[in-house]
Design goal:
Order of helices and strands: HEEEEEEHEEHEHEHEHEEEH
Low-confidence stretches: 1-32
CATH architecture of the largest domain: Alpha-Beta Barrel
Strand order of the largest sheet: 6-7-9-10-11-12-13-14
CATH class of the largest domain: Alpha Beta
Strand content: 25-35%
Structural class: alpha/beta
CATH topology of the largest domain: TIM Barrel
Shape: globular
Number of domains: 2
Number of strands: 14
Distance between the termini: 68 Å
Largest sheet: 8 strands, mixed, barrel
Number of helices: 7
Length: 284
């Protein structure tokens, strides 16, 4: 029993002595040379090639339903992302409520047969949100099985955009749907190659790119080393984020309420300097 108590005490001291000094809320410990993230009973090797998150999770708070970052040296912007699920939106009211930017779903690939479809409210949202003076980005819900299909999705998106101006990135959005979805068994290498192919295609057409994912997809499916310095849009529905690596934008709620929108809506905070500066300059 005495030996067991000594072991528990030793483990406790090691965990606290070698924890990073930067305040964090993610389950992270360093043991000598071995740097690991602990997520859903998985031990994940930390990549030395990716930038660590610079946002202090303890500085996030919620005020009137919206997340704010309590560091006067960091400029942020509040935004939403929408699709046909929100139906018709009064974009002038949305802007007047304090929303500073929007990401619109442009289209998606079917989860079973794999057809390509334009979001039925994209054109309406683009015209009305642009008319209201909001800076915009778009996202495409991907279910690509190969890099070639991801390129097909990007080309489809570019054809609909037809050279129209976007102030914010074009986003590759892959999500696990169900065990019956066409991409349910996609492997890490293939999915990462799909994201890369999509992003390079839109970048070659003059748009900025970004990848959207949640913690599960990042830690357990994507090969994050392949992302390099790709811009990241993190989805984590919580009061404080716990993602280890750096991200430019955080989707923190899918149940937000915003004047001008009759349904619940996704809420986001932009944190990256360049992203926020673009939003501020467009609105000024």
């Amino acid at each position: 029993m005495f030996c067991l108590l000594l072991f528990v005490l030793f483990a406790f001291l090691i965990c606290h002595l070698f924890s990073p000094s930067h305040p964090t809320s993610f389950p992270f410990r360093i043991f000598g040379e071995n740097k690991l993230i602990f997520f859903k009973q998985n031990e994940i090797q930390i990549s030395e090639d990716l930038s660590r998150c610079k946002w202090d999770p303890t500085l996030f708070s919620i005020k009137d339903g919206f997340v704010q970052y309590n560091d006067p040296s960091v400029e942020t912007a509040t935004g939403i992302d929408v699709s046909s699920y929100q139906k018709t939106i009064d974009w002038n009211t949305v802007k007047a409520s304090g929303i500073e930017f929007a990401i619109l779903r442009l289209g998606y690939r079917g989860t079973t047969e794999g057809g390509l479809f334009e979001d039925s409210f994209f054109e309406e949202n683009y015209q009305a949100a642009s008319g209201a003076g909001l800076p915009l980005g778009v996202y495409f819900f991907s279910q690509a099985l190969t890099p070639e299909e991801a390129i097909e999705e990007a080309v489809y998106l570019l054809r609909i955009l037809d050279g129209r101006e976007l102030q914010l990135p074009v986003v590759f959005d892959w999500e696990y749907v169900s065990e019956n979805a066409r991409t349910a068994n996609i492997d890490s290498e293939t999915l990462s190659a799909c994201a890369d192919a999509f992003c390079k295609t839109v970048e070659n057409s003059g748009y900025n790119s970004m990848v959207y994912f949640n913690l599960y997809t990042s830690y357990l499916i994507y090969d994050m080393d392949s992302f390099g310095e790709e811009s990241i849009w993190l989805a984590q529905f919580s009061d404080q984020p716990s993602y280890y690596y750096h991200y430019e934008m955080w989707q923190y709620s899918c149940t937000g309420t915003v004047p001008g929108i009759e349904t619940e809506v996704d809420l986001n905070i932009a944190l990256d300097d360049d992203l926020v500066e673009t939003i501020r300059q467009f609105r000024s």
